[in-house]
Amino acid sequence: MRPGGRVESAAMLAVSSRAVNLAAALVAACLLASVSRAQAPTPAKPATSTTKPASSTSRPKPKPGSTATKKKTAKPAPPAPPPPPPAVELIGLIVMPADAMRAGPPSGAFDGEGRRGAAARFDAQPVQGVSSIKPGGTAGAWWALSDNGFGGKWNSSDYRLCLYLFDVRPRTEPGGDSRNALQAVIELSDPAKFFPWRLAEENSPERLLTGIDADPESLVTMPDETFWIGDEMGPWLMHFSIDGELLAPPVELPDNVRSADHPLAIAHADIPRLPHSRGLEAMDLAGDNKTLVSILEGTVGGDAPRTLRVLRYDTSAGKWLNGTLIYERDADTVSVTDMSLIDGNRFVVMERDDKQGDAARAKRVYSIDLDRALPGKPLQKKLVIDLLSIGNARGLATTTPLDAPFRFPYLTTESIQVLDRKHVVIVNDNNYPATGGRGVGVKDATEWIWLELASAL
């Protein structure tokens, strides 16, 4: 890490060396007419007859326009339910406490309208809101991207945007030991003044970014040790150094697609084509190590319902690639929340509904292949994980009976990382201090789960 970068160390459970990399883990899953009726031909009329012969099957010819002339339309059969995914087993688990804090100024002083209260709710900065993860450089090390703070633009101006570096060793057997340590914090900043809009900390020398300036949702670690971050407020692509310094102006979306939180939309200088919080939620690097592939969380105004744009950005050329692909979410989900590379141009994609706890019904992971995209058609999807039906044969989830499936029912299931073709890691964004994922009134923790798939991706 370059001297002079702003990096703070803070321990949640233990602190280890700063240079760290991914703990190889284990996780995963896999998965897996119409009937036509022939219409009997009408017997031909005898040529010599002027009247239709009476028979047991003959009927008086109805008058034109009568109800008898209308064809009876058979009710369409209900669509067949999708096949269940292959079995998936919980093989690793870490639960980070909801109330973990790191060093920093008090936070949570503003309400949803941006009005400052009498006092900040928290004495420091919460370690919360994991919206994307990537393996670090050593065994057990994970980069984790924090979201914008407290769930909205206006109530998060005193939350400092950052990257966490964790040392995470999952529990792999009941009662087994585990490790959950915050090794370092990299605060995002713009000392070179690339950000074109006024910052909350505009006049500070470091120009630290806060939750009113941007909403980081997706993270990509590059071979040159820089970071690309996908944001929801622009939406923007943002390129940062290993020290968290912005390296260039934010990249706007093609076709001038902007959200309702974009500064131009707020100033009524442009019409937003995306709602609040529906930007660059899902993103990863393709197998060529230069192309960022992202799926917008929301449908762009004017596009077909439930369709989401798949965008590709060439980091070496610094431009969006031509040809927008299409992803279609399920009828019972509200958003795509993350994606992770399998290999080449194959990815897993996570979808969710807006329910949590016992009410959650749709938390799914699909595989897609961009190389099989057809012009104007949504990408084919294959269900590989149902996050509400996970095996718990090892008894890692102690609150779940061994004969019952383990459920991951958080409102925001936001991070997924493929480790290999049979193992993945998934993390929820706990939206601190939100409650309800594991019970009414229970503060949402940050859970990391390692899954093993019965069939290879």
Biggest sheet statistics: 5 strands, antiparallel
Order of helices and strands: EEEEEEEEEEEEHEEEEEEEEEEEE
In order across it, which strands form the biggest sheet?
Answer: 1-8-7-6-5
The beta-strand count equals: 24
Output mean pLDDT: 86
The N- and C-terminal alpha carbons lie at a distance of 35 Å
Structural class: mainly beta
Helix content: under 10%
Inertia-based shape: globular
Q: How much of the sequence is in beta strands?
A: 25-35%
* Spatial extent as radius of gyration: 27 Å
**What's the tally of helices?**
1
Subunit arrangement of the protein: single chain
**Which spans of ≥5 residues are poorly predicted at pLDDT below 50?**
1-71
Q: Can you give a write-up of this model?
A:
This protein is mainly beta. The protein has 1 helix and 24 strands. A 5-stranded antiparallel sheet has the order 1-8-7-6-5, with no helix packed on it. Strand 5 and strand 6 (about 140-145) form a beta hairpin. The longest helix has 4 residues, at about 265. The chain is globular. About 45% of the residues are buried.
In short:
This protein is mainly beta and 457 residues long.
Features:
disordered N terminus; 1% helix; mainly beta; 1 helix; 5-stranded antiparallel sheet; 457 residues; 24 strands
Helix/strand layout:
Layout: E1 7-8, E2 88-96, E3 101-102, E4 125-126, E5 130-135, E6 141-146, E7 162-169, E8 179-187, E9 216-221, E10 227-231, E11 236-240, E12 251-252, H1 263-266, E13 282-285, E14 291-295, E15 307-314, E16 319-320, E17 325-328, E18 335-343, E19 346-352, E20 363-369, E21 382-386, E22 413-420, E23 423-428, E24 446-453
Antiparallel strand pairs: 1-8, 2-24, 3-4, 5-6, 6-7, 7-8, 9-10, 10-11, 11-12, 13-14, 14-15, 15-16, 15-17, 18-19, 19-20, 20-21, 22-23, 23-24
